[in-house]
């Protein structure tokens, strides 16, 4: 999981800037809307919605915004209808990239994604071309400060986690199957472990090494894709060279 830990560290280092906060709110509101429409507006009975609401809180989205998104999706007001769609492609150097989007216009989103791949020297691929190189996982992040990482790891494994990464000095990452995410999160919370974030995610089965030039090109492409309003998450399978990792995460 070391490759994924690098990605997590970079995302934490960048944080959410004020300039991007409104865009983040738009993405999270869309995720809440899709979850509420699919499974109802009660977060306690709709686990996907609970994760979306937790994400909204983690980026300091006002509760009024959260409630409004749920109400619109469940009949409390007019709402756009979004659907989940996954795009697959190759970045510079043949890096596999998976793009998860929620859109009300597939043609528009596909055109936007394709244009970014073309500009970066990559290519949008057909369904199934790269998806096999990724697997769905549950991810729980826990602040390392004030915690004994070994104790957290034991608690998580006992609760049903598959793997625990304690290599980062700031955060412990717990990995589960998608189905075990909630039971592990609850068990950690009951044991008094402060859960910072819990989500269903995609993780590369194996990472590929690229030189610093290709890594920069792919990082730029990933960031451009993530900036699209319709895109919720981008996952790539390249490992970031240590020199570049230190520069971007520092």
CATH topology group of the largest domain: Alpha-Beta Plaits
Structural domain tally? 3
CATH class division of the largest domain: Alpha Beta
Estimated radius of gyration: 18 Å
Question: How many strand units?
Answer: 10
| Structural shape | globular
The topology string of helices and strands comes to HHHHEEHEEHEEHEEHEEH
How would you sum up the major sheet?
4 strands, antiparallel
Structural class computed from helices and strand pairing: alpha+beta
Strand-residue proportion: 15-25%
Overall mean pLDDT stands at 88
Sequence of strands across the biggest β-sheet:
3-1-2-9
The span between the termini is: 20 Å
Helix content: 40-55%
CATH homolog superfamily of the largest domain:
YebC, transcriptional regulation domain
Regions with little confidence, pLDDT below 50 for 5+ residues: none
CATH architecture label name of the largest domain: 2-Layer Sandwich
State the helix count.
9
